[in-house]
Amino acid sequence: MNYQELVTHVSGETGLPKKQVDRVFDTLRDAIHAELEYGESVSLPGVGKFVSVHRAERVGRNVRTGEPITIPAHNAPKFKPAKSLKEALR
């Protein structure tokens, strides 16, 4: 299911106009981005939890030349699925 199919599905289930559902998803995405930027986590009951994890600086390799490169420290998003979601997929 792609984004437009999801918007259509939610619109059909809730009776809300597609434009309004699209706006809700945009707001949800923006809220998740903002919280992760500040190192906070976002929990969606029954779905999972988005967290920001710190990755330390490390040495990698350029795949073409084999030359070592330094990958700087950074924060990366991580998703932990909820137990109920894992069980539903079994």
Short description:
With 90 residues, the chain is of the alpha+beta class. It has helices at residues 3-14, 18-37, 83-88, and strands at 42-44, 48-55, 58-61, 68-71, 74-81. The radius of gyration is 18 Å and the shape is elongated.
List the helices and strands and how they pair.
Blueprint: H1 3-14, H2 18-37, E1 42-44, E2 48-55, E3 58-61, E4 68-71, E5 74-81, H3 83-88
Antiparallel strand pairs: 1-2, 2-5, 3-4
Keywords:
42% helix; 90 residues; alpha+beta; 3 helices; 3-stranded antiparallel sheet; two-stranded antiparallel sheet; single chain; HU Protein, Chain A
3D structure, described in words:
The chain is an alpha+beta fold and 90 residues long. It has one domain: IHF-like DNA-binding proteins (HU Protein, Chain A, Irregular). It is 42% helix and 30% strand. It contains 3 helices and 5 strands, in the order ααβββββα. The chain has helices at residues 3-14, 18-37, 83-88; strands spanning 42-44, 48-55, 58-61, 68-71, 74-81. The strands form 2 sheets. It has a 3-stranded antiparallel β-sheet with strand order 1-2-5. It has a two-stranded antiparallel sheet with strand order 3-4. A hairpin with a 6-residue loop joins β3 and β4. α1 packs across α2 (18-37). The protein starts with a helix and ends with a helix. The mean pLDDT is 95.
